[in-house]
Design goal:
The chain is mostly helical and 140 residues long. The protein contains five helices and no strands.
Length: 140
């Protein structure tokens, strides 16, 4: 079996974060850790975007700021502009809900919306399709 390409690993990790967020969102019995659902949704979107960059031969920036990641992606594909509003609403979930006193705890509606936004990022990337072969990273 060929070694896993870095972009494939990013995509796999993003999918795992989104799946974990989904499982937690529907956890039973309550209380559901909605702050973790929001965090995992942000992480899934972040890793999806970073994986797309890596698949195009660009370095993934070391940041949780989705808008910064999008700015880098827009240098390759201008249509990433369409994700700015979503990114702005997800970025804060990387840190804020994980520390007491930073913001009110998110509830079920906010957690559902965060996961929906992260899925929208994933769907956007799926519509762009895989990297053309001449831009794909070597398998070695």
């Amino acid at each position: 079996m060929p070694p896993e390409r870095p972009s494939d690993r990013w995509r796999r990790l993003a999918a795992a974060d989104l799946r974990a967020a989904e499982v937690l969102l529907h956890a039973s019995p309550p209380p559901v850790p909605y702050h973790l659902v929001c965090f995992l949704a942000q992480q899934g979107a972040e890793k999806s975007l970073e994986g797309w960059l890596v698949s195009r031969g660009a370095a993934a920036p070391r940041t949780h700021d989705l808008e910064k990641i999008l700015r880098r992606a827009m240098t390759i594909e201008p249509s990433f502009e369409d994700l700015r509003a979503i990114a702005a609403r997800l970025t804060d979930f990387a840190v804020t809900p994980r520390y007491p006193g930073e913001a009110p705890d998110p509830g079920p509606a906010e957690a559902s919306l965060a996961l929906e936004r992260a899925r929208a990022v994933r769907g956007f990337l799926d519509r762009l399709g895989p990297a053309p072969p001449e831009q794909a990273l070597p398998l070695a």
